[in-house]
Each structure stands twice: as structure tokens, then as C-alpha cells.
Amino acid sequence: MITLRPRQIEFVKRSIEALLKHGNTLGVAPTGAGKTIMLSSVIGHFCMVNPNFKVCVVAHRKELTEQNNDKFEKVNHSLSTSIVNAEVKDWSGQVAFAMVQTLSKKNTLKTIPHLDLLVIDETHHVTAKSYIKIIQQAKEINPNVMIYGITATPQRGDKSSLGQIFNNCGDQIFLGELIESNHLVKPITYSVDVAQEKLMALKKKNAGDYSESEVADILDQAVIVDEVIRHWKAKAGDRKTVIFCSTIKHAEHVCVAFRSYGIRTDVVTSELTKEQREFVLNQLTIGEIQVLINVAILTEGWDYPPISCVVLLRQSSFKSTMIQMIGRGLRTIDPAIYPDIIKKDCVVLDFGISTVLHGSLEQDVDLEIKFIKKVKKDAKKKNCKACDREIPVQTKKCQFCGHQHEAEIKEDLSHVEVVLIDMFKKSEMPWVKIDSNTSYIAAFNYWCCLKKLEQSLILLGGSKAKEEEPEIIYQGNDARKAVDLANRFIKKREKPYAIQNFINMANFEATKQQMKYIPAKYKDLSQAEASVILSFQFDAKRKLEEMGVYNN
Hints:
- 37% of the residues are buried.
- The chain folds into three domains: 6-173, 3-Layer(aba) Sandwich (Rossmann fold); 180-367 and 412-421, Rossmann fold (3-Layer(aba) Sandwich); 431-547, no CATH class.
- By secondary structure, it is an alpha/beta fold.
- The strands form four sheets. The chain has a seven-stranded parallel sheet with strand order 3-4-2-5-6-1-7.
- Helix 1 (6-22) packs across helix 2, helix 2 (35-49) packs across helix 3 and helix 10 crosses helix 11.
- Helices cover 35% and strands 20% of the residues.
- The termini are far apart.
């Protein structure tokens, strides 16, 4: 019997409430949160309440479909399940687990029964045509079908919005929460500058839209690979490691280099068959290899907890991709399964610019639908250094004069800069002390007040809308928890861009107009701090006085 942790129980409760209220909801939970167990509990709740309740869980990989089915049965022993995939199309179970590739086919679409709940696993894929077809068919059969999505990475790389399907986020579990509760290990992240200037220039030139082969042209150099091995030996030489490379040739070159140093290394790419990939992965499991190199194979849906070092030898324009890669090393060790392994953290070595660009492993959920105008791009060109004729930018040998174009490399990288990055250090909204017992935080539309009582703390959250009454969010003695809940209360309600704009106000001095209405005891305020004080005076003070929480 699987017992849910307190935070998982909260996640399930909020998801159920949001589904009942909105008819759809998105749940965001990172690697290690127990995503499958939580979605199984949500489904189980509805099925136990109504024995005729029919559910379909859709995933994009066979392994995920089988994994979801297995874990669901462990959570919900009494509920029947069935599978819909290329081999079998069985809708007999109260809960059917389906492959999107199979279900979206014309003939299979017609077999979809009346569904009460459609669950989309790895929901960041949901705006693809195959998923849209399934959702439209389910709604055609039952206009009231509820749609539940769950993902670790809510922001899609192609900028299409999950807001096309979901109008709310029922709950979000943050990576920082899981690390603090010891359900994930902390990443110790190093940014190693072997070619940051060139990668930044590449990003700027192509407006962030560049190919992996362009990145490989920069990073796939013998002198850089030697630096990778040198820093890996110094920081993580005894750790099981996964390396993410830009191209297959790049991965093969890195593999050869590691082996030349006597390091047991292998590579998995799309060119291997499923059986060949499984063989290599098993070699890692049984200890025959220490370092596993891959190209876009292990980014998503692969977990091997003993991995305690992640090497980034590719660029990720999108934070979601970076989080997925680093997440491969954050799993904790179950001592019952790995009694001889101790894992306290994960070393991340970034030889690109992903960690510098994105700065944090936390993600905001933005369901606002944005309409993006697509611009047709001309093929990128460069001039041959020998004959000065225009040739495609990725050309290594000029078709006119035969000159070889190789990426420039540094002769000596032995003194490259290595920077330790805190991937959880991020700007926060400012708290202002109103008096010795009262602290207050606010953004544009919502606020929280933390009040010290005789025996405990009380945290209230409210809206600047006059008709809305404040709610008690927390009462207890854990100030750190209260602050965390306050941040979450506001961030769940405000638009991410609105919060960032508010945070940016901390860089500017309070205006004369703001200071007109602020008590003289406050000095040297930023625009953000002044805004918080004004919010307390005009939005919260009267409401708190009426509740008997504030008296001044």
C-alpha cells in the first residue's frame, strides 16, 4: 500500500477542487514529486465516488503507459485497468491507459467511449495536433468531460501556450520544496567558461534559434573535450555521470576521449536500436560503465537514481530542457534498492551557457495565450575566408575553392573561469515591516500579512479588490514556512510578468508622489517597497482591523 506524503495529499486535494470548479486543471510537479502516484490518487478519488466513472490516461511513450498502469494498480487495488496501444485496444477497464500515437489515429479515435475524465501525462506535449484530436473527440462524445494535465515543465519550447487547453493551475510543487524536504538532492552547479563568448554570440546572431550542429561546431573541439575531462575528474571523478551532447558525432568524439583516459564510457543515440540502447543502459546499472553519453535520448522519462553528476555539453535555449537534463541527477537513493550507495548532492558541470542564461531551476506557470507571428527565415550565410564567396554558414569546406572552415579554438584553456552558481537564488518580492509584530508583502493585485500573536504566527492573504475578504493561510510557529506560503499565495494568483515587473521596481528609488502618502519613519525606499506600504494602508489595513488582527 502506497501512502502519500503531506505535500502530495495537498496537491491531490487542490487538483480535485480545481477540476470540480473549472472542468480542467494543470498540475505541475517536478521529477521526484511522485507525479504518477498523485495523478493515480486524483483518478482514484473520482472512481471510488462513482463506480461508473470512466477515465483515459494518455501518454506519448510505451514505457510511460506501462509505468502509469503499474503504479496506478499499486495505488488503486480495486479498480480495473486496460491498455490501448498498437498491440491491443482494450477499453474494458474503468481506467484505460492509452498511447497518443495509437489513440489519435482515425480508426482508433472512433472507438473512444464516453469519458468522464481525460488525463494527459507529460502535458507540455498537449498542444500537438495528435492530442488536440483526442481532446476534441472526447468532448464531442461528452461535452462535460474533465481534462487533467500534469507535467514537470509547463513552458513549451515552441512558445505555444498550454492555456489553449487549461484555464488554471490547480497546484505547483517547486523543486526547492522537494530539496528542502529531502525528496531530491541539491545540485552543485558549476559554469565552466570554455566558449561562452562564442555561444553568446551565436545566440545573439540567431535570436536564440540555432541548430545543435552550430553548437557542436564550437564545443566539439579536442582542446575543449580535454578540459571537460579535466574538470570532471576534479569535481566528479568518482561519480556515475550522464553527459548531454549536441550531435551524434560530438557524442562519439567525447566517448572516445573519455575512453582514452581509461574511463569506462559508452554512448546512446537515436542510431541505436531499442535493444542496443537497453543493453548500454544495463551496462550502467550493473557497473560496467561509469559515464553515459547521449544525444536527446535521456532528456525525458529516464531515471537512474545513482547518477550524481550531469555534464551539459549542449545548449538549451529553453529552461524546461535544462531542468529536464539536470533533473536526471536529482533523484535520491532508496537504501533498500541501493544499500551500498550514498548520495547527498549532484554535481552539474555546464560547459555551455544554459545555467548562465536561465539562472534558476524554478519555473513560472503562464497560461496566457500568446499569438506569435511566424517569420520565414532565410538560410544563414557567411563569406569564405579564402575566396570571399558567400556560402552556407554551416559549410566546413568551400564548394568554390575547397578551403576548409574549422571553428576557431583557444590554444590554452587551462585557466578557464569556473563559476559556482546557486540555481535556486532568485529575486523575490520585498517584505516591509509595518511594526514590531507585523510584516507585509504585496504585488499588483494580491497581498499577504504576517502577524505575530502571543502564542503563534498568523498569515493572511487577500486581494486588493474591495469586495473580497482576506483568508487565513497559515497559523503556527514556523516563520520560514509562513514566508514560503505567502510567496506561493501571490505567485499562484499574479501573472508571472506582473511579478517580475514588480520585482524590477526594487531597482528604482521611490517617486515623490509615492512618498507623499508614506509615514515619515520610512526612509530610502525603492519603488517596490513604497508600493507595498501604500498597499497596506489602502488595501489591507481596514480589512485586518475589522478582523481584529491589526490594531494601531
